[in-house]
Design brief:
Order of helices and strands of chain B: HHHH
Largest sheet of chain B: none
Strand content of chain B: under 5%
Distance between the termini of chain A: 53 Å
Order of helices and strands of chain A: EEEEHHHHHHH
Helix content of chain B: over 70%
Oligomer: heterodimer
Strand order of the largest sheet of chain A: 1-4
Structural class of chain A: mainly alpha
Radius of gyration of chain B: 70 Å
Amino acid sequence: MANDPIHQFQINKLVPLDFNGVDLSFTNSSLFMVATVVVTSGFLIWSTSGRGLVPSRMQSIAEISYEFIASMLRDAAGVSGMKFFPFVFSLFMFILVANLLGMFPYFFTTTSHLIVTAALALLVFGTVLFVGFMNNGLNFLKLFVPSGVPGILMPLVVAIEVISFIARPISHSVRLFANMLAGHITLKVFAGFIVSLSSFGALGVVGSILPLVMTVAITALEFLVAFLQAYVFAMLTCMYINDALHPTEH
Amino acid sequence: MSVMFKISGVAFAAESAGETEGDAHTETAGAHGSGDDAHGGTFPPFDPSTYASQLVWLAITFGIFYLLMKRVALPQIAGILEMRRDRISQDLDEAQRLSDESDAAHAAYEHELAEARKRAHAIAQEARDEAKAETDAEREKVEAELNEKMAAAEAQITKIKQDALSGIDEIASDTAEAIVKELIGGTVTKAELAKAVSGK
């Protein structure tokens, strides 16, 4: 059981809740979503409560994350995109902290479940559609008609554009989900090798050094991936919002 | 779903662990599947029975998180950044003002210095002119005195010359008288002598 790399993704009911036959139990996944929200909001609000003119280290971290996302959104979607700043910032921080919390042994990684990342990606997709049509009306459909394409190729290009647009929430969600899932499985498998090899005696113990080194290296890599995937998710969100605001600027 | 997991489990084990490990792995997976009655052998991320709960709790937690960020955390951080920006621009304005002030003081100093230099020039010129006038007056006076002395000396020289010349006539007539007396043995009158000496 301990060696099963899939076990870490198991969802356990902590407080069973049944709502008209639909299971809405408070699970370990729910617990870590709550933990993500509490840790992140708690940190951001507490660290900036001093309102220091010269920031403390903790306040600096909060300010850097603020300016990091703000400049990312401003570069990608322009000043008019800044009204989506709380949305993009929440997405980034939620995914980042959920990913990082998942790096603790025995902790659950909420973003390793496709339904969670799909929900977030569809939220972005829905926002883009809604804002796109609200802001531009039918002009939003010009997003699928790139300028400067010869007439004969146009139907083909438009078809490709439409398909790639519809594929966005899929790639958006699967990228994050698959990265977290694969990373955690790999980590667990290499860690499992250490235990299995060590049980074969002295030679096994010596042989287990390699998977140990790999485990350490992959742990470092996973921290990078945890940040990178949150960054990629937020970055793509910014670009999709830009499409919704400026569909003709292509 | 169950089939999918079995396949992926076996494939995964075969590529990474080899035969015995792979068997052990599928066994544990199977045992795990039968042991956990709620989820069966389903790969957890693809178990639809957990979807509703995850979606509802994600909506609740992310919704609260979004509101906390939008209402509390982000305005707070934005306030800090704005305060700092204001403070910096205020400090820059103050620095600009002080710099302008120092520029003005410097210009005033330069002006003052130029003025003083001009005044000093004027004073020096005046002193020079005065000194020159004084020396000129002195020189004129000295020159006048010298001229006077020169004139006096010239007059004296002329007088001495005349005296000397008249003395020559007398000596000449005396000498002529003596010579005539020696040579001829007679006497000549003074008038004749004077006439002979002067050559008239």
